[in-house]
Amino acid sequence: MSAAGVPAADGRESAISWSAVIAGAAVAAGLSMTLLAFGAGIGLSVVSTAPTWRDSSPWLWLCSGIYLVFVALASFGFGGYVAGRMRLRAVVGAELEFRDGMNGIVMWGLAVLVTAVLAVAGAAVISRTAVPAGGSAPGSVAGETIIASELDELFRMPRRAPENDIAYRRAEAARILLKSQGRSGIGSEDRNYLAHLVGNYADIPDNDAAARTERVIGEAADEIHRARQAAVMQAFLVAAGLLLGAAVAWFAAVEGGRDRERGGHPIWDWTFRRRTA
What we know:
Number of domains: 2
Strand content: under 5%
Shape: rod-shaped
Structural class: mainly alpha
Largest sheet: none
Distance between the termini: 29 Å
C-alpha cells in the first residue's frame, strides 16, 4: 500500500496500464469532439463545405488554427491526467514518474491513432457519396468542392440546360481549371478547348465565351490559391497542436500520478478553501 492508501501492483504488472490509457484516450476524444463541435458552431473552422468560407480573412483562419491548438492542449491535458491518475503503481522512486509520463504519451498516441482512423473512414464515406451538383455521375470532387461557384458561372446560360452530359462537362472543366495553380498553368490548347466547350454549351458567341473563360480561369486560380493557403495553415497548426499535446499529456500524466500518491483532489481541494476551512 502507498502512503495515500493506493495499492501498488506487483512486479508482474505491465509497465503500461492499458485500462488507464484507454480511459484517458476516451476522455481526450470525447472532450476533443465536444470542443470541435462548439468551434464549428461559432464559425471557427478553417475549411467549410459552404461556398462562402473563402470570403473569410486569413485572420479567421489563424484564429481557427489557434483554436485547434487549444483543443489539443485541453483534450490531451485532461486525458493525460486521467491516464496518470488511474494507473496502478508498479514501481517506486524516479521510475514511477517516468512510467506515469509514458502512460500519458501512450494515451496521446492511441487517441491520435483512433482519430486518424475515424477521419480516414469518414473521408472514404464522403468520397463514395460525393457527386456533382448537376448530375449523379462521378466527377471531380476537388473541383466541385473548391471551385463549384466558378463552374456554375462557366456554364451559366439563359436557356434550359441539356441533361445528358452536364456532369461530365463540369468535371472536365474542373480538371482543366485545377491546372491554373500548376507550374505551367493552363495551356493555350486547354483554354481554346474550354472556350469552345463553353460557347457550344451556353450558346453564346465565341468572343463572349473566350472572355468568360479567361475571367473564370483567373477567379479559379485565386480561389485555389486561397484554399491552398488555408490547408497549409491548418496542417501546420494541427501538427503544432499534436506535438504540444504530446508534451502536455506527459506532464499531465505525471501530475496525475503525483495526485494519486498524495490522494489529493486538485479540482475541489483549492488553496482558497484550505485557507478558509
